[in-house]
Amino acid sequence: MTQRKILTRRGLIHGAALGTGGLLLSGCDKLYSQPGFRATLESAEQWHQATQRWLGGGALAREYAPSDMSPVFRANGNRSVADPSYRQHFDQAFERWVLTVDGLVRQPLALPLSMLRTMPQRTQITRHDCVEGWSAIGKWEGPQLKHVLDMAGLGEKARYIVFHCADSFGAARYYESIDLADAYHPQTILAWRLNDRPLDEAHGAPIRARIERQLGYKHAKYVMRIEAVESLDGVYGGKGGFWEDSSGYAWYAGI
Amino acid sequence: MKAQSVVPPPRGGDLVKRHRLSTRIWHWINAVTLVVLLMSGLMIFNAHPHLYWGQYGANFDASWLDIGATRSGEGFVRIGPLRFGTTGVLGIWTDPEGVTRARAFPWWATIPSGYSLADARIWHLAFAWVLALGLLAYMLWSLINGHLRRDIHIHRREWKPAHIWHDVKQHARLRFPTGEAALKYNVLQKLSYAGVMFVLIPLMIVTGLAMSPGTDAWAPIVTEAFGGRQSARSVHFICAWLLVAFFIVHIVMVVLAGPINEVRSMITGRYRLPREKAEDA
Q: Model ipTM?
């Protein structure tokens, strides 16, 4: 008697879930394949960006105490780089490697790693939030991006900073981009050290961008070149980042 | 006042106005929104099917909940020390094309049905606006039109354990109010509607925001209130299932109380008062 009841209830719930789920799903997937519907949903990203910027202004991401740090800082995305030129620099401990800064700047730069390490540094223990849902807390150190941009002298038309990277997914190079609000944010650094050790390959050696108020995929690893641009339209797929171009991830990843 | 006292009170069998337009609109928008948020949320969970307590949490850290599959192809859910076999439903399942997939929640429970974290986030973060703005508008409007004060407000006498216990017993016996008494929410209804409106949905919104690295910068207290981002993520997940539990009880109650009459009252606003039954001997 009790057993029959349980079976009925379970069957009812399962059946209802399957029925409504199946109906809803085919409908949802179909709706989503219509560009207008998808574009409407995607426009929420602008609302998020506008409200976060309005409410947040230049607020700093939270910084933690050493005791809060993750025992192991997970590496994600590409954990190694195949590019032959990168491999050569890696084998030479990046001694002859330079970071290129160009685009809409008055003075293009070629900064050796030794110089990035000796410029004024910022050290911050922050929480890295992956779009997948996990978080890791680590200690990052490097020069502020704004120092580097000031050295190069940002052109008046520059609106975005593009990070060109050495790693690829298949044939597609990784890249990311941020606007000037994030580029000039005090916590936006070109980190060359994690947890008091020079970055290893898995975490983005020789340098990795830290964009502390956004999700992990904005924090480009293996940064080779920093380019100032007026618009993201002509850059790779035009959506401002590898994941944005390839899978439709949001360019504004503050939420 | 005088005119009202002349009108006889409604009796069982009468067709009466039950739900305001604002309630009906919010109800249906919310129904769609919560289903979309749940199903897209389950897809987002699939990207990292582990939950933690505290500020951080990733693969090397101790989780309190995992949904996954063993190497031998056995689906499982682990909650603390408890482990359940869920092959075919959770952790490992077969999609409509007959392909076996090792993902936490199955195709029929997620939006989209095929794995895509990016698309699920687009759904989820768009409908999050509908949920938040809808709740805000409904709360304000219900304050203005007196819905909260008249229909949801729990009076002192209703808080009495004896009164609540009486209602629990009546529900358990499936004895629902009839006649004029059916016009008002009973205390269990008030508690569940207030719980959803003032506790569960606000908690979903706040824990959702607590997971945003942008919000955490300008309002760290939101994340801190839950003990960290990963705790907020766990509370978000738990509250989502409490809303599912509410949904199931809600549907069961609607079915038991007379689905056609109940659904009509939420569409047209008109409700036929249940007739008073002749007293059993």
A: 0.89
